[in-house]
């Protein structure tokens, strides 16, 4: 018999959850323009909008808050954070930023020239926005299989080296300031990159003097997948695997709000001293002194501890197992989800869930809204709305993946909460034909998914109603 495991922590403080009625949720959803980003968190029962900044801190982290050194310059809390990054990640130089996109801003400004190309293994919204705002064209070099939610591969975040080579041949290495390698790949479904692939990308780039910058946001989760799936790593610690991974890069941007187990913070790290000196100048302009970079001393204390806690093998094993606990039940029930189950989230395949809706009827946005209506579970669209418009043509970008992300905050919910989510999705699947599409009634110019507003397409104005089915059939 396979023995069950449980959370590797016990609960010291609890937060009561709101449990609204169907009618109250209906009102809340309409107020939010059917956009889950705009729902008040007070109206949410189980919040799977994001794993970003939603972590529960440990007692050690809460205790350390009191020791925060709030000096404007030379804070000892910064020294502790800097040391933690050097010890766990192994880079020579570190600069603090208020969160991941602060680091992306500085890196993009310093490395990119107008007309450059930045290859990456699928885009992330803020990362690509910074690259484009600095004049670069983003080029997707992830393996083709990553765009197909039904293909089950152990390392679906891998770079297709032929695509990278073809880009170098086409535009020339001098037009490629760096390769941006995300480990894991958020929008592909939290899919990892193999150690072999990281090494191959690094070696190819070195031969052309192109830097490799990791988006290390969920790097510990990637390290665990290597331990679990890649030959030769089963007996190594996640901490050792992580160090090896990062040795195949020249630096990284980091959102501390994920794998550093804190609610705010980030950093930019690198091995090149010249880049460090130039980055320090920009940190002062955009973030604050290089000894706090937009974080308070107490934030830095919490992050220094979180960085070490995250590489505890029991913590990360349970983290991935909890995501699997949710995803496996959905798979077993025949619900279309991205395969294999990723590191931070389970992604519903909205095209397969709602095949009666075209991409212009925003199936993922509609499904996220319907899930909230059914059970108060908040999720996020990751499809055509998130992909935005082509900066040159103004047309919608049309990603193959039209997904609803159920993102699991770290150390926050129990597996019982995951079971409640499963039940709601199964109930929705039963009545999926009744779910209407949406029309966008307000579209902001940048990162539109945050603030866009929608209305149900169905004449009755109901998102889930038997009428909708009749409309589709007629
Ligand atoms: N890179 C990746 C892969 C991310 O997932 C995020 C944030 C960032 C960079 C930016 O970091 O938020 O600290 O500025 N992802 C969040 C999410 C917002 O919900 O997936 P940030």
UniProtKB/TrEMBL annotation:
EC number(s) given by UniProt: 4.1.99.2
UniProt xrefs under CDD domains: Tnase_like (cd00617)
Keywords of the record: Lyase, Pyridoxal phosphate
Recorded GO MF terms: tyrosine phenol-lyase activity
Name of the protein described by the UniProt record: Tyrosine phenol-lyase
The gene coding this protein: tpl
Short name of any one Pfam family annotated for the protein: Beta_elim_lyase
Family: Belongs to the beta-eliminating lyase family.
Cross-referenced InterPro entries: ArAA_b-elim_lyase/Thr_aldolase, Beta-eliminating_lyase, PyrdxlP-dep_Trfase, PyrdxlP-dep_Trfase_major, PyrdxlP-dep_Trfase_small, Tryptophanase_CS, Tyr_phenol_ly
Catalytic function, reaction form: L-tyrosine + H2O = phenol + pyruvate + NH4(+)
Subunit structure, interactors included: Homotetramer.
Top EC group: lyase
PANTHER family in the cross-refs: BETA-ELIMINATING LYASE-LIKE PROTEIN-RELATED, TRYPTOPHANASE
Residues that bear N6-(pyridoxal phosphate)lysine: 258
Every Aromatic amino acid beta-eliminating lyase/threonine aldolase domain range: 47-422
Cofactor: pyridoxal 5'-phosphate
């Amino acid at each position: 018999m396979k023995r069950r495991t449980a959370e590797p922590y016990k609960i010291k403080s609890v937060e009561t959850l709101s449990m609204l009625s169907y009618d109250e949720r209906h009102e809340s959803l309409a107020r939010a323009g059917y956009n889950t980003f705009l729902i008040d968190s007070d109206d949410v029962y189980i919040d799977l909008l994001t794993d970003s900044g939603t972590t529960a801190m440990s007692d050690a982290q809460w205790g350390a808050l009191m020791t925060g050194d709030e000096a404007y310059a030379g804070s000892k809390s910064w020294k502790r954070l800097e040391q933690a990054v050097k010890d766990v990640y192994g880079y020579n130089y570190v600069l603090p930023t208020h969160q991941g996109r602060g680091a992306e801003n500085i890196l993009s400004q310093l490395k990119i020239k107008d007309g450059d190309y930045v290859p990456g293994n699928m885009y992330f919204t803020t990362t690509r926005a910074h690259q484009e705002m600095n004049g670069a064209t983003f080029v997707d070099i992830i393996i083709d299989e990553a765009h197909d939610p039904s293909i089950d591969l152990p390392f679906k975040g891998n770079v297709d080296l032929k695509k990278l080579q073809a880009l170098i041949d086409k535009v020339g290495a001098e037009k490629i300031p760096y390769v941006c390698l995300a480990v894991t790949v958020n929008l592909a479904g939290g899919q990892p990159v193999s150690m072999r692939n990281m090494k191959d990308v690094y070696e190819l780039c070195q031969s052309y003097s192109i830097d490799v910058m990791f988006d290390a946001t969920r790097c510990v989760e990637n390290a665990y997948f290597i331990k679990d799936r890649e030959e030769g790593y089963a007996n190594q610690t996640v901490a050792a695997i992580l160090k090896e991974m990062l040795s195949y890069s020249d630096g990284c941007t980091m959102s501390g709000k994920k794998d550093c187990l804190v609610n705010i913070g980030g950093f930019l790290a690198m091995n090149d001293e010249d880049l460090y000196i130039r980055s320090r100048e920009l940190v002062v302009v955009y973030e604050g002194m290089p000894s706090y970079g937009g974080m308070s001393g107490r934030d830095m204390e919490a992050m220094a501890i979180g960085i070490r806690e995250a590489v505890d093998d029991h913590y990360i094993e349970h983290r991935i197992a909890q995501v699997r606990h949710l995803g496996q039940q959905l798979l077993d029930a025949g619900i279309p989800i991205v395969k294999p189950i990723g590191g931070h989230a389970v992604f519903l395949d909205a095209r397969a869930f709602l095949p009666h809706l075209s991409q212009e009827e925003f199936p993922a946005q509609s499904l996220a809204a319907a899930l909230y209506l059914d059970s108060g579970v908040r999720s996020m669209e990751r499809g055509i709305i998130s992909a935005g418009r082509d900066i040159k043509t103004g047309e919608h970008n049309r990603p193959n993946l039209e997904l609803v992300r159920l993102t699991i905050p770290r150390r926050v919910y129990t597996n019982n909460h995951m079971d409640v989510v499963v039940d709601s999705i199964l109930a929705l699947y039963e009545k999926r034909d009744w779910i209407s599409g949406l029309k966008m009634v307000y579209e902001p110019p940048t990162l539109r998914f945050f603030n866009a507003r929608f209305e149900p397409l169905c004449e009755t104005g109901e998102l889930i109603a038997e009428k909708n089915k009749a409309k589709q059939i007629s």
